[in-house]
TrEMBL record:
Residues 9-100 form the Roadblock/LAMTOR2 domain. Pfam families: Robl_LC7. PANTHER family: SERINE PROTEASE INHIBITOR RV3364C (PTHR36222:SF1). It comes from the Bacteria. This is Dynein regulation protein LC7.
Amino acid sequence: MIQQRGNMDWMLKELADDVPSIHQIVVLSSDGLRIARHGGDPDVADRLAAACAGLQSLAAAVASEIPYSDGMMRLVVIEVDGGFFYLMAAGAGSYLAVLADETVDAGLVGARMRDMVVRIGAHLSTPPRHDGQAG
């Protein structure tokens, strides 16, 4: 895990407060390192961040096969028994992930995630890494 950005806590809490049934929110870098989280267990957040790195890569590979696509992943939604998982591009090299239970308003969580990314996208950008060190 990289150092969590304290100034993001209020943003993530606001998203959780706006959308009932959200269990955990994770902001991660494209290489799968947790930047920030709200709710849930820190170890779960780290595992989610690592899994998201692979998921966003797979989504980008699929997107590149779509004619006229720019090949960039914007949103992945996974629905399973018991809930939903959302992964959204959130700035250069950053992603926003949300775990929610099955009672969540699926449209509302996606819309609020988009609002959050638009409003604070610059705060969610991750500098590229050089020799294992952030920019």
